[in-house]
């Protein structure tokens, strides 16, 4: 996910990516909808893909469960818009 100069890269298209946090909804056939908040991930503006750590999704019981919605968390968006 990172190249030699520690710039995040997209694992899908290898373009530049941005580290951020997401809030989202995952739909599981057996458990229904699960809401998660503050999930770390990479956002690629080139291919519009979101990548999250697989081990974190496994710990949350979401391995192989599709996300029905992901949005950048308000805290992450505010921190980027108004850096201290």
Descriptive account of the structure:
With 84 residues, the protein is α+β, with helices and mostly antiparallel strands. It is 17% helix and 39% strand. It contains two helices and four strands, in the order βββαβα. It has helices at residues 54-59, 74-81; strands at 17-28, 32-44, 50-51, 67-72. A four-stranded antiparallel β-sheet has the order 3-2-1-4. The two termini are 27 Å apart. The model has no long low-confidence stretch (mean pLDDT 84).
Short description:
The protein has helices at 54-59, 74-81; strands at 17-28, 32-44, 50-51, 67-72. With 84 residues, the protein is an alpha+beta fold.
Rg, rounded, reads 14 Å
Structural class: alpha+beta
The portion of residues forming beta strands comes to 35-45%
What proportion of the residues is helical, as a percent range?
Answer: 10-25%
Q: Give the H and E element order.
A: EEEHEH
User: Based on the structure, what is the oligomeric state of the protein chains?
Assistant: single chain
Number of helices: 2
Head-to-tail CA distance between termini: 27 Å
> Order of strands across the biggest sheet?
3-2-1-4
Shape: globular
Q: Uncertain runs with pLDDT below 50, 5 residues or more?
A: none
- Number of DSSP strands? 4
Major sheet description: 4 strands, antiparallel
Q: What is the overall pLDDT average?
A: 84
């Amino acid at each position: 996910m990172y190249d030699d100069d520690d710039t995040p890269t997209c694992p899908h298209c290898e373009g530049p990516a941005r580290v951020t946090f997401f809030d989202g909804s995952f739909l599981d056939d057996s458990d229904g909808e699960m809401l998660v908040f503050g999930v770390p991930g990479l956002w690629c503006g080139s291919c519009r893909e979101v990548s999250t750590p697989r081990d974190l999704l496994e710990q949350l019981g979401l391995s192989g469960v599709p996300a029905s919605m992901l949005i950048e968390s308000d805290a992450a968006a505010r921190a980027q818009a108004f850096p201290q």
